[in-house]
Amino acid sequence: MKTTPTAIPDVVVIEPRVFPDDRGFFFESFNERRIDEALGITARFVQDNHSASTRNVVRGLHYQIRQVQGKLVRAIVGEIFDVAVDLRRCSPTFGKWVGVVLSAENKKQLWIPVGFAHGFAVVSDKAEVLYKTTDYYAPEHDRTLIWNDPTIGIEWPLSGEPSLSPKDSKGLRFEQAELFD
Question: Which of 38, 106, 140, 169 is 20 to 30 A from 21 in CA distance terms?
Answer without folding.
Answer: 38
